[in-house]
Design a protein that fits this description.
mainly alpha; 18 helices; binds phenylalanine; binds sodium ion
Length: 444
């Protein structure tokens, strides 16, 4: 069977931006900005996105487009009879693990979308409500199952009829909702304090940890280091330029993160809340914010619906990496692969869900099961995958070949010698330092 292709350059950009824009932009970005001191973190994040994120994202797309293969097959095609395919294998494994816990947080978003329909009562105990939800037995499992079923349904429908079509509907919807929420946030009396928290940097807050969190956030948010963009790049037509499309994808992801900041922080400050509450910011602080805001029921519903949509277009890219691997390498049909692997991922997601209830005694390095999955996948596998992909592109495939693929056909942005220096040396060294310090901090 012929490999499917995105039907247009716009289709590819929307699908890849759909992968990038997710829980990372809204839930994760806002809580990390909140705990890392605001604008100084945002500035650091923007520098890393441009100097490391953009070149690596472009590299992954180029590897995929050149080889027309899933991550494992792509490394095999460019370096036959060598162990480099293991980098692709680690990517497939990372996709598997990330989806199994991502779907749980996405399930919380669906649960909160449903809760938001009846409105949040300003006198409620929102911390208790969130803890109550995640520590209950069946509701989080059922929402996890519903979310995985949606993801499997889209992937089983194919690249064009599933992924591209879903992205073309959901991405514009997401943009409109977030713009409405930004206007709502900025027009609340007292919004200015939130804007200045988000925009006026205080560098006295920057430590080595701020740097680590910024690089980790950059990888997660751009879907980097696990072959998602190799896989999506493998469906890209030869006549579509790579460097400009990559800039659009990075630009859209960054824009949505910044817009999420403008939607969330002004509202948090205007209604007298603290931004530093950590991972619970979206689920514990924001319902309280919505409850005390005019038309809060409507905006609360929109916010959690937005979160669920963003999560869905990312989840399909995670499942697609695993499905593309088994379809290309083992000859399975797409439908069989989507249902079987999606089912196994659902089951792999049970321990991290139950880690908040019946398995709450199980801890690893002080982390619950969900955080453990997140740590190994996001903090170990993604940066390691990114580092090895950079070394591979520069020193095995060779930057000359990578640049040739990236620049054909020519776009507005043209890659040259600066790319060799960045991807061959600066990026791998920077990631290595960050990983060593980060893992050392966590384990010791
Ligand atoms: N980029 C997605 C987000 O920001 C998460 C993701 C990571 C998706 C890795 C695919 C691969 O939520
Ligand atoms: Na993102």
């Amino acid at each position: 069977m012929n490999r499917e292709q995105w039907s247009s350059k716009l289709g590819f950009i929307l699908a890849a931006a759909g992968s990038a824009v997710g829980l990372g932009n809204i839930w994760r970005f806002s809580y990390v900005v909140g705990t890392e001191g605001g604008a100084a973190f945002v500035l650091l994040y923007l520098v890393i996105i441009s100097l490391i994120g953009y070149p690596l994202l472009t590299t992954e797309i180029a590897i995929g487009r050149k080889t027309q293969r899933n991550p494992v097959g792509a490394f095999k095609a460019l370096a036959p009879n060598s162990p480099w395919w293991l980098v692709g294998g680690m990517g497939v494994l990372a996709g598997f693990v990330i989806l199994s816990f991502y779907s749980i947080v996405a399930g919380w978003s669906l649960a909160y979308t449903a809760k938001a329909i009846t409105g949040f009562d300003a006198t409620a105990d929102f911390t208790g409500m969130f803890v109550g939800h995640i520590t209950s037995l069946w509701p989080p499992i059922i929402w996890h199952a519903i979310f995985m079923a949606l993801t499997i349904g889209i992937i089983a429908s194919g690249v064009v009829n599933g992924i591209q079509r879903a992205s073309k509907i959901l991405m514009p919807a997401l943009f409109i909702i977030i713009l409405i929420l930004v206007v709502r946030g900025l027009t609340l009396p007292g919004a200015g304090a939130g804007v200045s928290f988000f925009l006026s940097p205080d560098f006295s807050e920057v430590t080595s940890k701020t740097f680590l969190r910024a690089i980790g956030q950059s990888f997660f948010t751009l879907s980097l280091g696990m072959g998602a963009l190799i896989t999506y790049g493998s469906y890209l037509k030869r006549e579509d330029n790579i460097s400009d499309s990559a800039a659009w994808i990075v630009g859209i992801d960054t824009a949505v993160a910044l817009l999420a900041g403008f939607a969330i922080f002004p509202a948090v400050f205007a209604l007298g809340f603290e931004p530093g509450s950590g991972a619970g910011l979206a689920f514990m602080t924001l319902p309280a914010v919505f409850a005390s805001m005019p038309f809060g029921t409507l905006f609360g519903f929109m916010f959690f619906f937005l979160l669920a949509i963003a999560a869905l277009t990312s989840a399909i890219s995670l499942l697609e990496v695993v499905v593309a691997w088994i379809v290309d390498e083992k000859g399975w049909s797409r439908t069989k692969a989507a249902f079987t692997l999606g089912g196994i991922i659902f089951l792999t997601g049970l321990p991290p869900t139950l880690g908040f209830s019946v398995l709450s005694d199980i801890k690893f390095l002080g982390m619950d099961i969900l955080d453990t999955y997140d740590f190994f996948a996001s903090d170990v596998m993604l940066p390691l995958g990114g580092l090895l992909t950079a070394v591979f592109a520069a020193h095995v495939w060779k930057t000359k070949n990578a640049i040739e693929e990236i620049n054909s056909p020519k776009g507005v942005i043209s890659f040259g010698n600066w790319y060799t220096v960045l991807v061959g040396y600066i990026i791998p060294i920077a990631i290595a330092i960050v990983m060593i310090v980060g893992i050392y901090d966590k384990v010791i």
